Amino acid sequence: MPDSKLGIFFLGNTNRIFVPQFFKMSKKRVLSCIQPTGDMHYGNYFGAVKNWVDMQSELECFYGVVDYHAMTMPYNVKKLRNNTWDLIFNLLAVGVEPENLFIQSLVPEHAELGWIFNNFAAMGRVENMTQFKDKSLQSKSGKEGFISVGLFDYPVLQAADILIYKADFVPVGKDQSQHLELTREIAQRFNNQVGKEYFVLPETKYTATPKIMSTADPLRKMSKSAGEKHYINVFADDQRIRKQIKSAVTSSEEKMSAGVKNLLELLSACGHHDQTKELTQAEMEGTLRYADLKEVVADALIEKSSAFRAKREELLENKKAVKDQIKVSSMRIRKVAQQTVSEVKELVGLLNVKF
Ligand code: AMP
Ligand code: TRP
Predict the structure, then answer these.
(1) Tens of pLDDT, residues 105-135
(2) Is-contact 294 245, C-beta < 8 A?
(3) What residues does each domain of the chain span?
(4) CATH node for 25-209+318-348
(5) Residue with CA closest to ligand 2 atom 8
(6) By CB count within 10 A, which of 150, 332, 344, 352 is most buried?
(7) Is the CB of 69 under 6 A from ligand 2?
(8) What pLDDT digit, counting tens, does each position of 45-104 carry?
(9) Is the pLDDT score of 1 beyond 50?
């Protein structure tokens, strides 16, 4: 890792040679995470993960599959580990580099820092998180009617995920803006208390399409929790994608309905900018045939999904090697997290002894 924080002047292992401070050009850091709670959909991809992939060439990136977070809603203990690996293969298939990926439970310092942050997070602010309100309603109406303390504390652990790597940028969808605000507040309160600008205040990074809507109900966001028809699985087969786009809701009283707008956004997110412009123009002039729009959007998504599926198949042929690689990268990334936690323990007055 130290090498990747150095500029272009030295190649190879620079740990053993003297590098003047002047030549050290540290890359800005990026952190983002996703929960292993089922399929990856085009809301995740166009809203956040595409940015993860694009940022890798310029910046130092840390991307986590957050299994501690996935325990906060009622879940099946037999499925969690499989879901975690499944998501790892999905992320690799869409272009995330293995050396940037880690599994949260292999870096338990996240939970340790989360506990420390509980003491820097204001109760009233955490109580106000809309994701908690939505998910606790969902949890309450489930068969056990159970809301865990973990669900409440979720955003504090998220702050630890981000700050433990001193991330400058966090690429996420629009729904995460409140959690990012809370993260900055925790960092600020921590810095004030220890009398030092220790944590960087991270900046949220959105894609051009930070809120993809459900094609079945364009007034709600695309998400897994609303049920299968409300999301398009990135790895779905061609027929399924075509069927979902064909049945997309487009009607409304407005000039351009939310459904049509969402389909045009999907097309633009696929990189078909000229076609999007043309079709938007046609919609404005009232000449757009929705069947044509749906066909173009389905074709664009199918092209992407078939490439992703092929890559995933290829990775699955070397399942063990890929898993080993992710364990190694998690261990390497853990060193960064351990360093931060050690510094934090010093700053807040905890014992910090290496056994
Ligand atoms: P999740 O699947 O809820 O763990 O979300 C993973 C990432 O995808 C987060 O950065 C979310 O903000 C983003 N995301 C989820 N759903 C959408 C959506 N419908 N539109 C845009 N971004 C989304
Ligand atoms: N809360 C995010 C979501 O629901 C997932 C997440 C957990 C996250 N930790 C994070 C996102 C840290 C960005 C940074 O999608």
Answers:
(1) 999 999 999 999 999 999 999 999 999 999 9
(2) yes
(3) 25-209+318-348, 228-313
(4) 3.40.50.620
(5) 33
(6) 344
(7) yes
(8) 999 999 999 999 999 999 999 999 999 999 999 999 999 999 999 999 999 999 999 999
(9) no
